[in-house]
């Protein structure tokens, strides 16, 4: 992770936008981190972990899943 000042970002914005494709960039002002540039590509692992946490402890039988599927298909 790279850490740069606001003035450095202003001077070389294109360089840091390109770098952000591969790594996070921390922006500092007066020595304190005030912002972070991150890649726009989705973090699939983080998304999967978030989804699995949402459904932790919930389980459906195959029959329940099939009934929910049928409801969705039939628009009920």
Structural write-up:
The protein is an alpha+beta fold. It folds into 2 domains: 2-37, YefM-like fold, CATH 3.40.1620; 44-74, no CATH class. It has 4 helices and 3 strands. A 3-stranded mixed sheet has the order 1-2-3. A hairpin with a 2-residue loop joins strand 2 (25-29) and strand 3 (32-37). The radius of gyration is 22 Å and the shape is elongated.
Indicate the topology.
Blueprint lengths: L1 E4 H6 L1 H7 L5 E5 L2 E6 L6 H11 L7 H13 L2
Parallel strand pairs: 1-2
Antiparallel strand pairs: 2-3
- At the first level of CATH, what is the class of the largest domain? Alpha Beta
Poorly predicted runs of 5 or more residues: none
Terminal-residue CA separation: 49 Å
Question: Please, how many helices?
Answer: 4
Based on DSSP secondary structure assignment, what is the total number of beta strands? 3
In a few lines, what is going on in this structure?
By secondary structure, this protein is of the alpha+beta class.
What labels describe this entry?
76 residues, single chain, 3-stranded mixed sheet, 4 helices, YefM-like fold, alpha+beta, 2 domains
């Amino acid at each position: 992770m790279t850490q740069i000042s606001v003035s450095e970002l202003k001077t070389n914005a294109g360089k840091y936008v390109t770098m952000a494709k591969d790594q996070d960039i921390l922006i500092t002002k007066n020595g304190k981190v005030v912002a972070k540039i991150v890649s726009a590509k989705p973090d699939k692992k983080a998304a999967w972990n978030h989804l699995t946490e949402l459904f932790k402890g919930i389980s459906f039988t195959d029959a329940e899943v099939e009934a929910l599927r049928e409801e969705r298909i039939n628009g009920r």
